[in-house]
Specification:
Blueprint (H helix, E strand, L loop, with lengths): L1 H61 L5
């Protein structure tokens, strides 16, 4: 009887640990995706900044303000 109970408890713990491992892997995949997205948007922002904002700031600092 004790062996059966211990066997069931072992099976239940293994099932729970497998579920936890799957959840952790899913969350890691989501984090990786968010990290990729954040890097992508940061690069897009830097490109836009360097294209549109920085040239205007450089002109203003050099005294070439056309306003």
């Amino acid at each position: 009887m004790i062996v059966v109970v211990l066997g069931l408890l072992t099976w239940a713990l293994m099932a729970m640990s497998i579920d936890l491992v799957q959840r952790v892997q899913e969350q890691e995949a989501q984090i990786d995706n968010l990290t990729y997205e954040s890097v992508k948007y940061k690069m897009m922002y830097e490109d836009l900044y360097n294209t549109y904002i920085y040239p205007q700031e450089a002109d203003y600092e050099e005294g070439n303000n056309n306003e």
